[in-house]
Write a structure and sequence with these properties.
With about 140 residues, the protein is of the alpha+beta class. The chain has a single domain (about 45-144), classed as L-fuculose-1-phosphate Aldolase, CATH 3.40.225.10. About 40% of the residues lie in helices and about 10% in strands. The protein has six helices and three strands; from the N terminus they run H-E-H-H-H-H-E-E-H. It has helices at about 30-40, 50-55, 60-65, 70-75, 90-100, 120-140; strands spanning about 45-50, 105-110, 115-120. The chain is globular. The N and C termini lie far apart (about 35 Å). The model has no long low-confidence stretch (mean pLDDT about 90). The structure holds zinc ion (ZN). Zinc ion binds near residues 28, 47, 87, 112 and 113.
C-alpha cells in the first residue's frame, strides 16, 4: 500500500484533509472514528470483508473457534461476534465498539466482514489475516 491509497481525515471534525477527490472516506467512518476515540489516536483500524471469516460466522462463534488454535489465540484477541446489523449504520458502529471495548483486537460482523485494530496498519491487518487463515482451516477441515 502506498500513501496515495489513503484518504486523510481530520479525526476531530471528520473533514477531508486532502484534495484527492477520487478517494472517498469509508461509509463506516463513524466506526473507524469511534474506535480511534475509544482507544487512542495512535491506533489503526482495518475493516475488510474476508471470505472465510464471513463464511465461518454463519454457524460459528469466532471467539470460541480460536481457542483451539494457539497460532491465533496467542497473538490476537478475538471478540464475540456482532450479529446481523445494517452496514454503514450507527448500530454497526455501536456493536463493534462494545465488543472491542473488552481489550480485543478483532471482531467479526455476521454476513458482512471484520474490524481489527493495531498500533500499525500492518498489525491491524495481521489480526485479520490470522483469523482468516484459521477460519479457512476449520471450514476446509469440515469438508474432508
Ligand atoms: Zn463493510
Amino acid at each position: 500500500m502506498t500513501p496515495e491509497l489513503f484518504k486523510k481525515i481530520d479525526i476531530a471534525t471528520l473533514q477531508e484533509l486532502d484534495d484527492n477527490r477520487e478517494l472517498r472516506a469509508s461509509g463506516e467512518i463513524h466506526l473507524h472514528h469511534g474506535l480511534i476515540k475509544q482507544t487512542n489516536q495512535e491506533q489503526c483500524v482495518v475493516h475488510l470483508h474476508p471470505t472465510y471469516i464471513v463464511a465461518a460466522m454463519q454457524t460459528l462463534e469466532l471467539s470460541q473457534l480460536v481457542t483451539d488454535y494457539p497460532e491465533i489465540s496467542r497473538y490476537t484477541r478475538v471478540a464475540d461476534n456482532v450479529g446481523m446489523v445494517p452496514p454503514i449504520s450507527e448500530e454497526l458502529a455501536e456493536q463493534c465498539l462494545l465488543k472491542l471495548a473488552e481489550d480485543k483486537d478483532i471482531v467479526g460482523i455476521k454476513a458482512h466482514g471484520a474490524v481489527s485494530r493495531g498500533y500499525t496498519l500492518y498489525d491491524a491487518y495481521e489480526h485479520t489475516e490470522r483469523l482468516e487463515h484459521i477460519c479457512k482451516i476449520v471450514l476446509v477441515g469440515r469438508t474432508v
